[in-house]
Amino acid sequence: MAEQDGQEKTEAPSDKKREDSRKEGQVAFSREVTSAALLAGVGMIFYALGSQMMVQSEAYFSDMFTRLSRPDLTISSLAGLFAEAGDYALPIFLPFAATVVIVALLASVFQVGFRPTLKPLQPKLEKISPLNGVKKLFSAQSLAELFKSLFKLTVLGYIGYFTFETEIQHFMGLATTSTDDIIGYNFAVVASVAGKIVLALIVLAAMDYVFQRWQHEQKLKMTKQEVKDEAKQTEGDPQLKSRIRQVQREMSRARMMQEVPQADAIVTNPTHFAVAIRYDRETMTAPQVTAKGADFLALRMRAIAQEHNVPVLERPPLARELYRDVEVGQVIPDRFFKAVAEILAYVYRLRKKRT
Fold this sequence. Notes:
With 355 residues, this protein is an alpha+beta fold. A hairpin with a 2-residue loop joins β1 and β2. It is 68% helix and 7% strand. The chain has helices spanning 15-23, 31-68, 75-83, 85-112, 130-137, 140-173, 179-220, 224-235, 238-259, 296-307, 316-325, 337-354; strands at residues 3-4, 7-8, 265-268, 273-278, 288-294, 312-314. α2 runs antiparallel to α4 and α2 (31-68) runs antiparallel to α7 (179-220). The model has no long low-confidence stretch (mean pLDDT 79). The two termini are 83 Å apart. The protein is rod-shaped, with a radius of gyration of 43 Å.
């Protein structure tokens, strides 16, 4: 179904959608590519080993007919004669069998890579559903299969007719030629026809491969809602993530507020910014910013500082620059040392007066 909740599948498939589809065994696969590769592979083996196969076959049949004509032929010797047929047939047909297996495997790996799965073989109710069967009859895949069948039928008919028209004169003259010449001629004609068929199938396979990839891509497309749902599954609900970030900010603010009573001084803008400064000669190499805030947080820091008798000093330029350039927990840069040293000296004098 091309729609979900009234939405069309207009979005490109995500990497997760592609991976899930691949795990299910749903990949772009063209059987025509495999067929063309198999026919080409078998044709090349036949071309390379055809003469040798003919020699072996001729030797076998010559030996067989010679032994069949012997007067001492018995049932047991006849059984042995047919058993020896395997010794002749195996070297002839083994290259074809190996070619079929190897080429079929390589053609499949070329199209979908090497990731075997048994999921496509698992029984599913939708595979035997009559309704799904009717839908497939009028699907794009069915039209493509019809086109491929008509293409093959047309190509085979044309090649057969063209070969007959071209070779009809040669057929008439075969009656006066030797057996070897007839066999050689037949092999040449078969090779020519097979080569033309292979070329036609390669063209069809290329077209079908492109079509299968396009159709698979269309099936994998997603609706906007599917993209949102997948994002929630893989990255988390945006609302939940926003809530988590909010809680983290609140926890960070709470920790900063706990540092305010321990600060040596609060530098303000006077109301927009507030920066807490602390310096411990035994544990710190230089003064640090232990808390900072703007607007409401700045007012909150001022209130806490007043509750704990922490000096609040209005230094607008310094407060703005410290808030902008220095993070909580960082050492104050060298360019602020003089200004901060003056503040700390003032704070230490206040402490001495109180004591």
